[in-house]
Amino acid sequence: MLDERIAPYVPAEALHRPAGAAINDGMVTCVSCKSMLSVAKADIVGMGYRCVPCSQKASIAKLTGGGDAASHFSVNERDGLKESGSHVIWAGVGITFLGVLMLFGMFLRTGTMATLIGVIAIAIAIGIARRNASR
């Protein structure tokens, strides 16, 4: 049973409003281009507000492999994402090394080897995706 006295983990920076979320007389500042616009015309992102042209640029960048993590995550969150991606990549490399050792030792059957290759590919792909998402 879940102990209700255990509080969930909440990063300290999540308890404070980001600087980009300040509203002055119904006007906000775009976190990307720093232009002033009405709250009604702004898109909400993790670090505050963004104007429609900057949101469209971010959508196009996402389609071409780029990202806009700076608009959604703080510096500490992006660093954590990059670090966890690196850990997953190194785990995939370690599994690859172990798989090669086992292959030379003739301990694996073909089906198990195919499964191991799949796990390796997934681990490395996830790690690379997490590291790239932190940019």
Task: Point out poorly predicted stretches.
Answer: none
Which class do the helix and strand fractions yield? Answer: mainly alpha
> Rough shape?
elongated
Biggest sheet: strands, sense, closure? 2 strands, antiparallel
Radius of gyration: 22 Å
Average pLDDT confidence is: 77
Give the number of helices.
4
Proportion of beta-strand residues: 5-15%
Helix and strand string, N-terminal first? EEEEHHHH
Placed side by side, the strands forming the largest sheet appear as 1-2
N-to-C CA distance: 39 Å
DSSP strand tally: 4
Percent of residues in helical segments? 40-55%
Walkthrough of the structure:
Strand 3 and strand 4 form a beta hairpin. The chain has helices at 52-63, 69-72, 75-104, 110-133; strands at residues 27-29, 36-38, 43-45, 48-50. Helix 3 (75-104) packs antiparallel against helix 4 (110-133). It has a two-stranded antiparallel sheet. A two-stranded antiparallel sheet has the order 3-4. The chain has 135 residues and is mainly α. The chain is built from four helices and four strands. The relative contact order is 0.11.
